[in-house]
Specification:
Length: 381
């Protein structure tokens, strides 16, 4: 068997059939051809925005057996693994941190596979070949570093064994303990939390029509409304939202059955929305926005409706994304997420390695402390 690696500027250059032959078995919607192609074709993740595709494909005797979403990055925005302090320190010391190489899904802090292998290929061999290809590309381009954001724990462990620096952080995940209904889930909580959540839901829903749309029920008018909510809230929070209007039309056209769009209407007019993607065994909360300030509406659309949807579909968990200890009180418990980093120059690698060696146990201790102190679940369950 003869192995070769190729570098591509766009996932479209690999092609849907070849890419999804490697990506689809994972059941992860974010590494699918349609999602990544929408990021690029919509102008959301393109070189002028600091995202230049350098995707890898691995070929065995001419057939694609593995792929890796890879980007030449001119900044660290839209990544959710924060290395800004590393970049600033290195540049103060006279180094050049950017551009760097990043294996990730743009604007998506979701754990998933980063080394995608066709089912009939040796997954460990594919991972090793793609990793070595990414490291060789880092060296050939004279880049400061290679980063693998939000890999699976197994891949994270293997990357550490290959010499990359391992980092750990926290996200918040709701787990389905076989609940039959939302009330069944509430019965697992302390009485105080049950009362609070019921009150929040009553107040959030008062006078509103809230719908969960998926598949053919999602129309372009819904995307218009959601985009208005997304850009209004995003502009107030972080300046300029990453995703273009065209991105949502593209995923709506190609991934509608993997989308759960929660919309709130007042007197027929949309005022808020939350976008979720449906995986094989999980619901992934992504963007949210609102045109009106309604108490607790964010919790209703983003957390409680997601839980209801997951219970109805028999999904194992809801991943609510980065940040927000307030999620714990609503049943989303702290969970570790991972990243791995190759830094070429020892003068930067050594201090970062020391920092991460101290950071990892601190993060693990924080997860344990938050769970013990803030978990809303009954102690006797």
């Amino acid at each position: 068997m003869t192995l070769t690696l190729r570098v591509h500027d766009r996932v479209a250059d690999v092609g849907r059939e070849a890419w999804d032959a490697c990506a689809s078995p994972s059941g992860d919607p974010f590494v699918s051809f349609d999602f990544l192609d929408a990021c690029e074709a919509s102008g959301s993740a393109v070189p002028r925005q600091g995202w230049a595709g350098r995707h890898l494909s691995l070929h065995a005797d001419g057939a694609v057996i593995g792929v890796m979403p890879l980007w030449l990055k001119g900044h660290s925005q839209g990544e959710y693994v924060f290395d800004h302090s590393w970049a600033e320190a290195w540049e103060r010391a006279g180094g050049r941190y950017y551009p760097k190489l990043l294996a990730a899904v743009p604007f998506t802090p979701v754990t998933g596979p980063r080394f995608l292998a066709r089912p009939d290929a040796d997954a460990a061999m594919v991972r090793e070949a793609l990793l070595q290809g990414a490291l060789a590309l880092t060296d050939r381009l004279g880049l400061s570093s290679l980063h693998v954001n939000f890999p699976t724990r197994d891949d994270w462990t293997a990357l550490g064994e290959a010499g990359l620096l391992r980092r750990q952080d926290i996200q918040y995940v709701w787990s389905n303990a076989g609940y039959r209904s939302f009330d069944d889930f509430l019965s697992a909580l302390s009485s105080g939390r049950r009362k609070t959540i019921r009150r929040e839901r009553r107040e959030a829903r008062a006078g509103l029509d809230i719908r969960v749309l998926t598949g053919a029920d999602i129309e372009e008018a819904h995307w218009d409304a959601f985009f208005a909510c997304y850009t209004d809230t995003g502009s107030r929070k972080w300046g300029r939202p990453y995703l273009t209007r065209d991105f949502f039309s593209r995923i709506g056209a190609t991934m509608a059955d993997r989308i759960a769009l929660v919309m709130a209407f007042r007197d027929g007019a949309p005022i808020a929305g939350a976008l979720n993607l449906i995986g094989r065994d999980a619901l992934y909360g992504r963007q949210w926005g609102a045109l009106d300030d309604v108490p607790f509406l964010h919790f209703e659309l983003c957390y409680y409706r997601a839980i209801e949807f997951a219970i109805e579909r028999g999904l194992a968990r809801v991943e609510a994304g980065a940040q927000g200890e307030h999620k714990i009180a609503r049943g989303y418990l702290p969970t570790p997420v991972y990243s791995a980093h190759f830094i070429a120059d020892p003068a930067l690698r050594r201090p970062v390695a020391g920092l991460l060696a101290r950071e990892r146990p601190a993060v693990e201790a924080e997860i344990e402390a938050m769970t013990a102190a803030l978990s809303p679940f009954r102690k006797d369950r």
